[in-house]
Each structure stands twice: as structure tokens, then as C-alpha cells.
Write a structure and sequence with these properties.
The structure holds two protein chains of two kinds. By secondary structure, chain A is mostly helical. Chain A is about 60% helix and about 5% strand. Classes of the chains: A mainly alpha, B alpha/beta.
Chain lengths: ~350, ~600
């Protein structure tokens, strides 16, 4: 039992005025908590670096490597130490048949070597990362949005609405995530859809975004529903009802701000999960479609070169691992500063 | 310091104890500084003080239960010949914990392990230090349960903790503590979580056991009544320091320090209202001298022409579900046929023990649960017949002040926003007008307008309760339901908040439904009192009638169980029957018996026992 620092000795009038006007709201405390954590700052900084790097992909392709990562370069030649060297080199092993793409040059051109079609892996990594992050990020937002709506609607309304939504969630939940995602992809990819005035062309990035955004909705909606139900039973919501506040205003002003922390905690974890899911789908050829790249497709490109040119697979694998790790590290700190109780238990 | 010279070798001797905790930003905060006191064999010493004064930290240091990573303990603690601070963990287990000293805690609900049988837990305590053959251990465990007066001890050995009521669990905890025949029993607020009648039983038990075993006791409490009843000597603590210590009788008769005087003056004393016609404020205590001023009575009396609230035949039942398909299997008759009226400017108190339905009554009246039937008329409108929108508007007239002010405020809203919200919601004016009104109310409840910018967590407990009062007043209510509003506050703060409520009533003529288990406070604030038991009102009437001439057996038991801060009454025993608390769970086809009430004097109704 620690004494409260602001507790005053029993005096007839409560001490007033001291440090008045000092406004440290809950959001500001979260922000300060993040600033104070080296883990959060380092992981956020590195994540930022990755995002900026992928955004600069065209710059890299145009000015640094001077290669077109989307055109096959089977007959291309580059200069190494002033000597022109073919990108696709004659195999020296075995019977000497066929060609092997060039390995990492550690120079501006073909920094990480070429893939099976003679394309610059480093440039493709940046372009692919852009897609991977875009898909995962957009899917995260979509997932949080729908999970919030479903979870709040179910938790706050109760009754029939809750019954229908909860059962719907359970039904989606009953499918293994990848089975669901792959099934949806096979149905949707390779066709064009008309959604009112919008048309989604085959191979569009919107397809994997929608699929990945959908499959994790139950996993987030469920806890949100529980949280809403708990807050709805809390004393301050009771007090608000007793004060005669309208139902929708209670939802807006009392429940939503308190649920938002749960949503925020989910964001980085979900993002990490989505990156892995996107890569897995793309690796299985049901995510990002060629000639577009993502870390998952590059991983697949490197599959056949695993023994001769391991960097083609190692680079995207490493990128996925680092990004997911950073997101999880950041998410851990975020959770702790949003919920001081969990931090105290550590 | 009044240390008795004739006490030879103290069982516990604390010299210059300091404890610091590792706080935020790696700084050490001292919570106890320079504390010294002794306990002789067979003696009871009480540590009293308000929350945060370091009472519990002291006891935890004696048992070596503070986390060494986040706390620093300095000074000297000698317990039964051992230098506690020099012992390592193994030494503490071998010599101190459950050996020389044992401890009982505040929360009997959580200090027993829920998935082991009670008997096994006692046997574990018995055999953890001495090997005992199984049958012998069981025999001793039964003997211990009998010692703590648990009825049918042998049969109850194989029950799980959930089958025991709070008082019975506390008895089991005491039995476990006694298992090793400790020389010192540390009781940390052992009765705070219990109902008054159960508290009385436990205190009696502890007194008896102390005589039987010849133990010393370190009794930690905030309740001056309990101190007066239990302690030979008393140590008054304030912010980690002993401000005064001495023999309890002398300390109560002539306190020396202003803080002790203030503490004693703030304690509501049952029976101090004899002959007072109207509610009385607590005397204001001058902190410099500790002298109490005069207690001011209310100026205005209730307007008895027409009731502001008329409750007739209120019934609230909750379903107990279970079995196949989650069907209704029984009903909890939380509130059963409750009727009363409240007049403008009047305070009606609902008293009773936990589970008697007093809080449910308060919530049912404003329809915070939809499980009630009956007729509730509020200034002409039948609340149970109102449509949702009309009910929402009507709620303006009835406000609640909660027990836990922190939980009842949205942590993500400033106090200013929380105060203005109901004002604009009921279209009483613009946000700016609401802001101005909030500022005035903040000053009226003893806070400042600058505090409107703060968040709830930035206030102390008493200040938060003031904020809740201000929030209730934003809507100019006619009736305020105060549900255990002052129960969780420290005595001195409690007195201030009670005075504030009385001021408000005197000035604005607001009626109060004051729900509380604290009978001494109830006596102070009420015009009329209703006593509830198992969901029913057993007795209702004017405060002097109920307090001075209680007719119903339960009312008498309730009033008799209250501790009085008067050391002279120390050796009285209550000689209560030990009873298991009953809950009003009834089968679905249960028809409540028709109750009849006898009017023993004007307005004083007593339920006739059938």
C-alpha cells in the first residue's frame, strides 16, 4: 500500500490550487511512455527507415542500380571491375548446362544478385516491400475497422444483434485462416470485378488487401465485443446512464475512447501477422500476381535457386523477419504503456 | 514515548525502521521513516492510521514479505530473538513465517486457495514445519476448526472455500495462523471487509483465542472503534511515522498530538446523537491544535406536505440460471415488497448488511436494472411506466453519488468535460454556461475551478468524491441517492464529505436516499432510517426511534454489533450466535409470505415475525 503522493493530511479544506492546470491526459501519457522507452523509439525508427527505403524504390532503380526490376534481363550485361559480365552466367557445376543468375555483386548494380529471370533482386526487394507493407497496412486498417464495427455493434446492442453477429464471427472463425484465404484468393484472383462504378482488374493489389483484411476480423472482433460488454457494465457507464446521457452519446464519448486502446494495441500485432499472411499467399501464387513483386513472390522466385543463389530467398525472408520482429517489439511497448497494469506485472 | 518499564523482553521490537520503495523514474520514496515500538508477550498493539500511513508496510516488513528488488528496509526488527532483517529467505521460512509469527489478511475471499479443500489447507499449515502422521494431522485440524468456533467442524473439513461465507473464511484463516502456535499474530485489517455483525463475532473470537494461546497481537486497522475494543496499546501513524503511542485508554482519554485529537474527533460515535432532533454535522477540527469546534445542526427541516419519492411494493428478482440449456432454476429475491416515501429535504437511510438488497433498491428506483416491478412515483410521474426518452429526462431529477468515485468517472475525460456533459445533454444551457456552473460548483464542494482541467486519476479519493457530488449537482436534482458514498473514505475525509452533503441538503432542500452499512454515520445524517434484511424492510421509522428504541431483533443485533471507540467497553462480549449468512435464493414457485407491519409509534413500523 503506497501512500498517494497528492494525499493531503486531514485538513478541513482540501488543498487546492497546487499544480493546477497541469494537464496530462491519457493520450499524452501514452505518448510520453513511448518516448521514454528506448525499445519503442529504436523499433519505430527502424520501421520508419524500412518504409522510407521502400518508398524510394523508383529512385533506387533509376539512379542507383539503373536496372528495371520488372523486365527480365536474361541477356543483359553489366560491368564489374570494368569488365562486362553477363547477368546469366554459364553453369560451372555438373554438366555445365543451363545458366545461373549472377550472385551478389555488393556493388550498385545487382547488389543482391539477380533472380531466375535476371532481374535485380535488391530493386525488386524495395518494390516488393512497398507492396507487402501497403497490403499489410491497408488490410490492418480494414480489419480493425470492420472488427470495431462488428465488435461494438454486438457488444453494445446485445440480444438478437449480438446473437447473429457472434455466430457469424464463429462461423468465419471455424475455417482455418489460410484455408479461407487461399479459397477466397483462388476464386477472386484472375477475374475482374465490377463493384458499382469501380472495377477491380485481375491481379489488382486490392484483392489480397480485401482477403487478408477479412480473414482476421473475427480474431479482433471477438475481444472488442468482450471489452465493449465489460465497459458497458462499468460504473462510469452506469453513472452516465444515471445522469440521463443518450445511448449513442454514451457509445461515442464513454465507450469508444476506452475501446480505442484495445484497437491500437492490436494494430502492430495485426500488421505483423498480415505481413506474414501476405507473404505466405504470395509465395503460394495466390497473393500478389506477377509481374508485381512482394516479399512473398521474391521468396518464391528464389525457391529454385535455393542452393546456388540463396540470397534471392534470404533477402526477403530476412526483411519479413526483421519487420515482424520490430512490429512486435513496438507493439509490446505500446501495450504496456496503454495498460499500465500489464507493465506492472512484468 | 510511553514505554512501560515493567515489560521485560518484548516479543517484537522495532527500532528506527525505515522502508523505501522504488518509484517511477528510479527514485526511492520513503514510506516509513524512523518507526519504533515494542510488543510484549500476550499484549495487543494496534497500528492505526489512514490509508497510506504505512501500517501494512510495517507488518509486511516484519514478515519479510516486501519484494527486495523494489523495496529497501533499514533499521532493526527483532522478533522472538531473531534479527529479522539479517535473516535470509530460508531463515525467514524456518524461524519466522508460520513459526514465531503468523498473519491474517483483510480479504478472506482471496487469501484461501480456491481449489483445495479447507481441511487440506489447514493440514498443510500444520505439517509444513513438523512432520505429522495423516490421521493425527486431521485430528488436529478438526480441533483447530473447533477452536475458531466453526459449527460442524469435522464435516466442513472437506468443503471448498467457496462454500464458506466471508466470516467463516476469516475463521479458517485464523485457524491456519494458529496452526504453528505463533508467539505473534499479525492481523491486517482482519474485519474491514466483513459485515458489522460478523466483525463483532471475529473480534470476540480473536480476544478469546489470545487469552487461550497467550499470543501477542499486532492489530492493524483504520477503525478507532476496533482499536478501542482490541488494543492494550496504540500506535498512531501518519505518513510513515508514529505521531503518538501509548496505552489505549490514556490515548483515547487525553490525546496529546493534534493529529490524534483530530482523528478521534472525526470518528462518528454511535449513540452520540441521543436527544438531537435533526441531523448534525461533524465538528470541524482545527489541525493546528486538534481542537474540535461545535457540531452544527441542520437549519431547515423536511417539508412533509407531499413526498418527492413514493416507492410502493418494489420487487427486484434476478434469475439464477443453470442446468441444461441454461434455464432459470431459481430466483434471487434481491428486493421484496419494499415501500417507503421520501420528502423534500429529508434523508432516509437504508441500512443493512451486504447482500440485503439496499444497493439494488437504489438502482431499481432509477431503473438501472430492468428486473423490477412495483410503483415508483417521483413528483407525480410513475417511473416504471415512462418511455425511454421520458425516463432519460426524468433522470435529471434523481442523481447518484457512487461508492467508488474513480470507477464512476470515465478515465479519458477531464473532470470539466464530465461535469458539463450532463448539463448540455439535458439542454440546460450552452457549454459555456455549463462550464461556468461547473466552476461555481467545484468551489462549492471545496475544490478549485482550475481542477476542471484535470483527469480523475489526478485527484485523491476524497477529492474525487467531491467531484462526483459536483457532477450530481450540475442537474439541480431533487433527490440524491448516495450509495455507500462515504464508506471507502478515510475517517477525516469522510467527516468532511458528510458535512458537505449536509450543507447541500440544508441549502438546496435536496432529499437523500442514504444507503450505507455504517450505522454510526447513518445515525448522524438521517431523519428516518429503514433497516433491510434479506431484501425486505424489517423496520422503518424516525431516526431517534430506531436508534434508541429498536423493536425488531435484527435491528437490535445490528446496532449492538457496532464497535464504539470507547476503551472502557473493552471487556464486554456480544455473545452472539454464530450464524451462516443466508441469501434470499428461492425456488421458482416460491410465493413470498404476506408481511404485516405494526406501527409501534407514529411513523415507526416493525415487521411482525410470523
Amino acid at each position: 500500500m503506497l501512500p498517494e503522493s497528492d494525499k493531503t493530511a486531514p485538513s478541513p479544506a482540501v488543498t487546492a490550487g497546487e499544480d493546477a492546470g497541469r494537464r496530462r491526459g491519457p493520450w499524452k501519457r501514452v505518448f510520453e511512455g513511448l518516448i521514454a522507452s528506448p525499445t519503442a523509439m529504436i523499433s519505430a525508427g527502424l520501421l520508419m527507415l524500412i518504409v522510407v527505403a521502400t518508398l524510394l524504390a523508383p529512385v533506387y532503380a533509376k539512379y542507383v542500380s539503373g536496372t528495371d526490376p520488372f523486365r527480365s534481363g536474361l541477356s543483359a550485361r553489366i560491368k564489374i571491375d570494368g569488365k562486362p559480365t553477363p547477368v546469366m552466367q554459364q553453369s560451372t557445376e555438373g554438366l555445365g548446362l543451363g545458366v545461373t543468375p549472377i550472385g551478389p555483386t555488393w556493388g550498385p548494380q545487382y547488389l543482391l544478385g539477380a533472380d531466375g529471370q535476371g532481374r535485380d533482386v535488391a530493386a525488386r526487394m524495395l518494390y516488393g516491400g512497398r507492396n507487402s507493407l501497403l497490403i499489410a497496412g491497408a488490410a490492418t486498417l480494414i480489419c480493425l475497422f470492420w472488427a470495431a464495427i462488428i465488435g461494438i455493434a454486438a457488444g453494445y446492442s446485445g440480444g438478437v444483434v449480438d446473437g447473429v453477429l457472434s455466430n457469424l464471427i464463429d462461423m468465419i472463425w471455424a475455417f482455418p485462416v489460410y484455408l479461407l484465404a487461399i479459397s477466397l484468393s483462388i476464386v477472386m484472383i484472375g477475374k475482374s470485378f465490377a463493384l458499382g462504378p469501380f472495377e477491380i482488374s485481375s491481379g489488382s493489389l486490392i484483392v489480397p488487401i480485401l482477403i487478408i483484411g477479412l480473414v482476421y476480423v473475427p480474431y479482433v472482433a471477438r475481444p472488442i465485443r468482450g471489452r465493449v460488454m465489460a465497459i458497458n457494465q462499468s460504473e462510469f457507464v452506469m453513472a452516465a446512464r444515471g445522469l440521463g446521457i443518450r445511448r449513442w452519446k454514451i457509445l461515442l464519448r464513454h465507450i469508444l475512447p476506452n475501446v480505442s486502446t484495445t484497437l491500437i494495441v492490436f494494430a502492430p500485432m495485426l500488421m505483423a501477422l498480415n505481413i506474414v499472411t501476405e507473404s505466405s499467399l504470395s509465395f503460394l501464387s495466390v497473393g500478389v500476381q506477377p509481374p508485381n513483386a512482394s516479399w512473398g513472390t521474391i521468396l518464391q522466385d528464389g525457391q529454385t535457386l535455393l542452393y546456388s543463389r540463396p540470397w534471392v530467398s534470404l533477402a526477403p525472408g530476412f526483411a519479413i523477419m526483421v519487420t515482424v520482429l520490430l512490429l512486435n517489439l513496438f507493439g509490446d511497448v505500446l501495450r504496456d504503456v496503454l495498460d499500465p497494469k500489464s507493465a506492472r506485472g512484468r | 514515548m510511553n514505554e512501560s518499564p515493567e515489560t521485560p523482553a518484548p516479543i517484537l521490537s522495532i527500532r528506527d525502521l525505515s522502508v523505501s520503495f522504488l518509484g517511477a523514474r528510479k527514485s526511492w520514496n520513503r514510506v516509513i521513516g524512523g518507526l519504533s515500538f515494542d510488543i510484549s508477550p500476550g499484549e495487543t498493539v494496534a497500528l492505526v492510521g489512514e490509508s497510506g500511513s504505512g501500517k501494512s508496510v510495517t507488518s509486511l516488513s516484519v514478515m519479510g514479505l516486501l519484494d527486495p528488488a523494489t523495496s529497501r528496509v533499514e533499521g532493526e526488527i527483532r522478533l522472538a530473538g531473531y534479527d529479522v532483517l539479517k535473516l535470509d529467505e530460508a531463515g525467514m521460512i524456518r524461524h519466522i513465517r508460520g513459526q514465531a509469527a503468523a498473519m491474517i489478511f483483510q480479504e478472506p475471499m482471496t487469501s484461501l486457495h480456491p481449489i483445495y479443500r479447507v481441511g487440506d489447507q489447514i493440514i498443510e499449515a500444520l505439517t509444513s514445519h513438523h512432520a505429522l502422521p495423516g490421521p493425527e494431522a486431521r485430528k488436529q485440524a478438526i480441533a483447530l476448526l473447533e477452536r475458531v468456533r466453526i459449527p460442524n467442524a469435522a464435516r466442513r473439513m472437506d468443503d471448498y472455500p467457496h462454500a464458506f461465507s466471508g466470516g467463516m473464511r476469516q475463521r479458517v484463516m485464523i485457524a491456519m495462523a494458529l496452526a504453528s502456535r505463533p508467539k505473534l499474530l499479525i492481523a491486517d485489517e482482519p474485519t474491514t471487509a466483513l459485515d458489522v455483525t460478523v466483525q463483532g463475532e471475529i473480534l470476540d473470537l480473536l480476544k478469546d483465542l489470545q487469552a487461550e494461546y497467550g499470543m501477542a497481537m499486532l492489530f492493524i486497522t483504520h477503525d478507532m472503534g476496533v482499536v478501542a475494543e482490541m488494543a492494550d496499546r496504540t500506535v498512531v501513524m501518519l505518513r510513515g511515522q508514529a505521531v503518538e503511542q501509548g496505552a489505549t485508554a490514556a490515548l483515547f482519554a487525553s490525546p496529546q498530538e493534534p493529529y490524534t485529537k483530530a482523528l478521534l474527533a472525526s470518528v462518528p460515535v454511535l449513540g452520540s446523537m441521543k436527544g438531537e432532533p435533526s441531523p448534525l454535522r461533524f465538528p470541524l477540527v482545527d489541525m493546528a491544535t486538534g481542537r474540535a469546534g461545535a457540531a452544527l445542526p441542520l437549519q431547515n427541516s423536511p417539508d412533509l406536505s407531499a413526498p418527492i419519492l413514493d416507492v410502493q411494493g418494489l420487487v427486484t428478482r434476478f434469475d439464477v440460471r443453470g442446468g441444461l440449456l441454461n434455464r432459470r432454476v431459481a430466483q434471487v429475491h434481491a428486493v421484496e415488497n419494499v415501500s417507503f416515501r421520501i420528502f423534500p429535504g429529508e434523508t432516509l437511510s437504508l441500512v443493512g448488511e451486504s447482500g440485503c438488497g439496499k444497493s439494488t433498491t437504489g438502482k431499481s428506483i432509477i431503473r438501472l436494472n430492468d428486473r423490477s416491478t412495483g410503483a415508483v412515483t417521483m413528483s407525480g410521474d410513475e417511473l416504471f411506466a415512462l418511455r425511454p426518452e421520458a425516463l432519460r429526462q426524468k433522470r435529471r431529477e434523481i442523481q447518484m453519488i457512487p461508492q467508488d468515485p474513480l470507477a464512476s468517472m470515465n478515465p479519458r475525460m477531464t473532470v470539466g468535460d464530465a461535469l458539463v456533459e450532463p448539463f448540455t445533454e439535458h439542454r440546460l444551457g450552452t457549454a459555456a454556461e455549463g462550464r461556468a456552473k461547473a466552476a461555481i460548483l467545484m468551489e462549492q464542494v471545496g475544490l478549485t475551478r482550475a481542477m476542471l482541467e484535470r483527469y480523475p486519476h489526478e485527484f485523491s479519493g476524497g477529492q474525487r468524491q467531491r467531484v462526483c457530488i459536483a457532477r450530481a449537482l450540475m442537474l439541480d436534482p431533487k433527490l440524491i441517492i448516495a450509495d455507500e458514498s462515504v464508506s471507502a473514505l478515510d475517517v477525516s475525509v469522510k467527516a468532511q464529505v458528510v458535512n458537505l452533503l449536509l450543507d447541500i441538503q440544508d441549502r438546496l432542500g435536496i432529499a437523500f436516499l442514504f444507503i450505507s452499512h455504517d450505522i454510526a454515520v447513518v445515525e448522524r445524517v438521517s431523519h428516518r432510517i429503514a433497516v433491510m434484511y434479506m431484501g425486505e424492510i424489517v423496520e422503518i421509522g424516525p431516526r431517534p426511534e430506531i436508534m434508541e428504541r429498536p423493536r425488531h431483533a435484527y435491528t437490535r443485533q445490528l446496532i449492538g454489533a457496532v464497535t464504539v471507540p470507547d476503551p472502557a467497553r473493552r471487556h464486554l462480549r456480544r455473545n452472539q450466535q454464530i450464524k451462516e449468512l443466508k441469501t434470499p435464493i428461492r425456488p421458482l414457485d416460491f410465493r413470498p409470505p404476506a408481511r404485516r407491519y405494526e406501527e409501534v409509534s407514529p411513523g415507526h413500523l416493525v415487521m411482525i415475525e410470523t
